[in-house]
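Write out this protein's structure.
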Amino acid sequence: MLCTSAAQATDFYDRIRVLYNGESDIAIIDSITSIPYDVMVSDFDQSAMWMSRAKNMAMQINYQRGIANASAKLSSIKYLQGEYDSSVYYNLQAISLYDQLHDEVEMGAMYCELGYQMKRRNLMSAFDYFRRGLVLLKKNNAVGKLGAAYDNYGVLFEMNNQLDSADYFYSKALQIKIDQHDSIGMPFSLNNLGLLKMMEGNFLAAKDFFDQAYQIRKLRRDFFGIAESKAFYGDLFKAWQKLDESINWYKSSNDDCLFLKYPRQMQYNFEQLAVCLEKGGRYPEAIAALQRSVQIKDELINEENSRTMLELEQKFLSSEKDKNIAVLEVRSARRTLWVYGIGSVLLFFVVGALWYNSSLRRKARTAKDAAIIAEREAGLIALFDATEAERKRIARDLHDGIGQQLSGLRMSWESLGSKIALQSNDDHGKLAKLNAVLDEACHDLRVISHEMMPRALQEGGLMIAMEELLQKSIGITHINYRFEHFGVESIRFDERTELSLYRVCQELLGNVLKHSKATDLTIQLFRNKNLLILMVEDNGIGMQGQSDRTGIGMMNMMSRLSTIHGEAQWEPGPECGTVATVRVQLN
């Protein structure tokens, strides 16, 4: 089976050699830059050589798209080889050329790739590049490229420890690839979801995702992907403490890597294999695996080590020359050492005393600030509790007092009105109008009573109350809305948490109605371990349309959340609108 992958790569390069006659030709350039992914990763050096040749040919005939496509492929190859600076250089070159060609789809894809490459250097810049790329891809409905982009976007959220958002984008990417029948891309999304479940300790769910990815790669005869999938199984069973299975998978992956000449994956496998063997008490084998890992790593960075050795040798020779000078300087330095030593000791005691005094003042100030914050929190809790208690009392008085009186008055008025209508037909219209006014008063009283303290929240819980709130506020407008919930059905949280989150949701929906000019709204309520999460996403005019962050409503939301150990953040949507995320820590 493994011979097939190598044969495919050989066939591709043989066809290119037959076409290539030393002259620059657009058809040859396009053939080279259309290299399949499997072929490209099978031999990075040969792929880079042919891509550089294609770029030079395109430059000779001023074929701008050929230069852009070759630069984009070189960016991917250099990234996979670990040459990150070269990768960024070719990426920026491709973006500039696609911009000149007005190709927003390829430009968007390259912006997303640049964001992915920048993730370990500057995560915030990486997010910024991704947002630019996603706007262009969604604008042009580039569904195929959006799948890969969402996958890599999820990685950024995973690195930022926003696992719920990572899961959302991984799942979104997988669905796109399923719809597109993208058998190359599906395993990447499935493995990402598997790794996420593995991080959460849900090993069965992780194995299910890895199994699906492995089967797809076996059907495609993607042998580099199969070697990678076997390593994922090794990682899974290592985390699962099933060491024998983990060892078998790493060894199987190494067998493939040896045939495929895939040293980077093999080095990782031996490194993890050593850990598993050591945990299993197989120390001689663990040492052998570790030595093999180090050997491969040394081979991969041999050239870099050679340069380092030359630099060290030059530094050594330079230090020998400086040593003789240093001996003379030491003798002079000793004479002044005692003077500086005594002065340093005195200075140390003075600085130490000042630092100790400052530390005491700082601790006192910190304790005072903590007491103020605790008192403020207690005050906020008392204020909100008192406010809600007063709301309950007023709602109860309205319902039980004025409400009952109005109901009795309405019944008496209907009886009296019937008698008056029998005596005089002229007053029938006036009686109907007075009945309508009395009905409207009863209805308004019920609405005010329910808004003061929603009965659905008291009787059915948070999810039921939010459904009723959406029906009565958004459901009567032109806005299309979806309410998604999972992990919260038939679960009651403590009263303060439910009430505070309900009020926050009221405020967020109010902001959407007043400021966003949205036509679509998605509300999600779900539980992730010990977090209760509310997400409100609209497709409106964006964050510039939101109310002032220092406004009363926003301050009231933040104050409420602080009393239940919650937080909120607002981000621009992938293309437009705003995404508000509220997280509440559950006990």
